[in-house]
User: Fold this.
Amino acid sequence: MTPRTTKLTTPLKESDLKTLHTGDMILLSGEVYTARDAGHERMVRLIHEGRKPPFDPKGAVIYYVGPTPPHPGMPVGSCGPTTSSRMDAYLDVVLSTGIKATVGKGCRSPEAYDAMRKHGAVYLAAIGGAGALLSGHVTGAEVVAWEDLGTEALRRLTIKDFPVIVAYDLAGNDIFGEGRRKWARR
Amino acid sequence: MREVNVQDITDAVREMAIDVNLHLSEGLVDDLAKALEREESPLGREIIERIIDNARAARDKQLPACQDTGTAVVMAEIGQDVHLVGGDLTEAINEGVERGYKEGRLRMSIVGDPIRRVNTNTNAPAVVHTFIVPGEGVKISFMAKGSGCENMSRLKMLNPADGEEGILRFIEEAVIEADGRACPPMTLGVGLGGDLEQAALLAKRALFRAPLGAPNPAGHVADLERKILARVNATGVGPMGMGGRVTALAVHVEVAPVHISSLPLALNVDCHAHRHRSVEL
Ligand code: SF4
Assistant:
């Protein structure tokens, strides 16, 4: 039995988000913006200065990833998710711009889940360590800003049927806590 | 006295850095396939299947299996009857790291200073541990260690009275806290005894044990390994933390003599990528 699978295209609309349930598999297409620790530090500094992130945040998706260098002719190398919880401290500010989803791996803090409920955003989990496989779903990549950060630069990735699992939906269902409790042997 | 040129160590490190990242070991993939049989959660099964597909994709496309190509951790066991010639050992290891990460198109993940945090753009320096051992051999072991799992590693100075239950509980709690962040199914390296830094080093060395899941030769330690594995797989954390029966593939425990009033316990968490190799020169 495979999980319920739906297709979705960015930018995400509120009506899209309402259809998502924790545990669903989503094949995501469109564009996502990459940022991890150093990129978040810069992005949040810009927002605090009253400026906008260097892309249109409305309905946008942030992907927590630092890819490996591409082979010639390929957009990116290996590109699986990094640990999301390191970006939790920035999430409230990031989502305040209209960004509607983040993609990463692993459980997050209560504060991060609060921020998602406050801003009506969801959290999507990609399979950690599956960077070679996920690379096949990236059809384009360009550096938008902060090239000096190397792998941590802000990139726009064009993706096609990129598989993610809904980890936190608008109703506040958390796949990590619920999944563990369901399968624990007492 | 046998002479070994450090240039050969550079070449070995370069080769292993690329190899561990592009080619996950066949044994590991077999263990993941066996884990798939044990996994009851449909989503957990789906995830393990994709992890196995990913190992194939990495080989086929000659891409790193994971984008975090890690901190280079090198354990160098040098026989005391060996004379290393041709340069500085640590520099030779770091040169191998630089060449391997550049030529293998691996990710540069090291900053030169923990406070200023500017990327060295070479993935050097490696974390190097050297051991002087009897004989004329040189054994170089290489691990590409991801930060997702390394960040979930823990150390605690337990009291002897905490005993086996204290050990089990500490590891269980650490694994639950790590959750999907350490990319389960995990491999756990445990160091027990010694002092603070010896326990930590034992835990890391335990991860190099091959084949994966081989028991510690001491029966009572192997017993503890089985108990830890059962406890961790009862947590329900499961593949990528989304719930399931398979949280860890293996637990390796290494022990050392210890002070009458101490019980240092180090847990080094490794992810499902579990990338390491050794060569003897
Ligand atoms: S924990 Fe391991 S598999 Fe997961 S992202 Fe890091 S290196 Fe890759």
